[in-house]
Structures are given as structure tokens and as C-alpha cells.
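Sequence, C-alpha cells quoted for completeness.
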Amino acid sequence: MQRPSLRRLLDQGLGAKLTLVTAPAGFGKSMLITEWIREQSYAYGWIFLDERDNILVRFMEYLIAALRTIQPGLCDSVLQYIQETRNFSAETAMTLLMNEVQALNQEIIIILDDYHVICEPSIHHGLTFLLTYLPRNMHLVIASRSEPKLPLSVMLAKRQLVRISANDLRFTADEIRELFKLTVDKRLTKEELVCLERRTEGWIAGLQKVNLEVPLRLLRMLF
């Protein structure tokens, strides 16, 4: 379903360096970004992270792979540098990468999904360096269950960051009504909607589970 207020925040983020979406599991972070990015004219690369990616060279290889979905063959110099240089510098690698991105004649978005799994300091340092000198034609979107170890306060003060939190992602009673309208056999009163919002705290995963699995007659017994 459409959520215009969140779409506006994501659109607003394109004027900054970083859009940060933070919320616990099940709040629809990836779903929101997926629905939004499909409507954009920007080229984009999406990186799905897991615990095994806490190695700087692997992280850089994934970043290069994401960029190559936009422009094949991009960042050859970066790839050669990180693969041939033992204990390479994250700053040097990011500088080489930014030089190649800056030469592109198009706006691009890189999405880092599940960034909360990253705990390697060298990756945080490299990403901080990238954000500090980010090319004008590049924008980052980070989805995370927790706040990443990046200079968020500084970026916020400089208006380089747009944040979307769990509070923003929670469904209101009106949005819950729209969600349940999609199911013919579920017609809730205003009072029931308010109660459902309070019980689920607007958590989309919980709402979807109720909508798909709980018959209306049983649902009303919960109120």
C-alpha cells in the first residue's frame, strides 16, 4: 500500500548524502525501500549484508559488484588495488572508487541492507571516509536494526542525513484501515482499529500476520 509521508522522506533524502532507515526486524525497512526505488529514475545497486561480510576486502568487493550492476567494468583500478595490496588503506580504496563514480554521467544510489551486522572498525572507517567526500552524483541508503557507527550527529547538523525510524514506520489507525480494506472479509470499526494499533504498536509484520491468519470473528474476541 502507498505511504506518501515515508515516500516524501525518502525523496527528501536524495538531496542529502545518506538516508538511514533504522528499526527492529519486521518493521518493513526493505519493503519500503524496494517499493520506493522501483519508482525512481536513478540507477541503483543493492548490497545484502550478513555476518560473514566483516572483512574489509569482501565489503569493498561487494561495493564494486553493486556499482558494476550500474556500469559494467567500473572500478577496475579499485579491484586491482584491494586484491594486490596487503593490508590496503580503506581511504585509498574509497578515493579510487569515488574518482570512478564521479566520472559517471548519471546519478546513482547504493543501498546497504542489514548494516547492523557490520562490526569491523575498518569498514566503518572506510564508509565514514566515503560519506565525507561523497561524489555529488552518489547517494547512500542504509537499512539497519541499530544505529551504525558513523558520524550521524555531524551529518545531521550539516543536513547531510535524513533519518527514518521505527516511529515513522509504525502504521497509524488510518493506515491499518487501508491495509485491512485489501481483505474483503475484514471490516473493523474505528474503535477496533484503534485497539489493533495499540496492541500491535503499528508493527507491520504483526499486522500482516493478523490480516492473513486471524478470522474476523476471532480477531474481535481479542478486543
